[in-house]
Design goal:
By secondary structure, this protein is α+β, with helices and mostly antiparallel strands. It has one domain. Helix content is about 45%, strand content about 15%. It has 3 helices and 4 strands, in the order H-H-E-E-E-E-H. Strand 2 and strand 3 form a beta hairpin. The longest helix has 18 residues. The protein is elongated.
Length: about 80
């Protein structure tokens, strides 16, 4: 795990943003997708994406983590 901090894993920005979004989403991870829906030329929805999500940590832990990250940024710019 320490190697992740050094930037050595093969993780895309897309995957990293999805992981961090779980903190802002109260501990719920939602699998990212590029296409939300497909419509024909008349606006008829041909396919509607249903997001896959799962709880990955408690809402309390997510809140505390967000506050800790926020504190680091705020203390840096004071």
């Amino acid at each position: 795990m320490p190697s992740i901090a050094a930037g050595t894993p093969d993780i895309s920005v897309f995957e990293m943003v999805a992981a961090y979004a779980a903190f802002a989403n109260k501990g719920v991870y939602t699998k990212p997708v590029m296409i939300e829906r497909i419509e024909d030329k008349n606006g008829t929805v041909l396919y509607q994406f249903a997001p896959e999500s799962k709880d990955v940590l408690s809402a309390e832990s997510a809140y505390v983590t967000v506050k800790l990250m926020q504190g680091v940024v705020e203390s840096r710019f004071r």
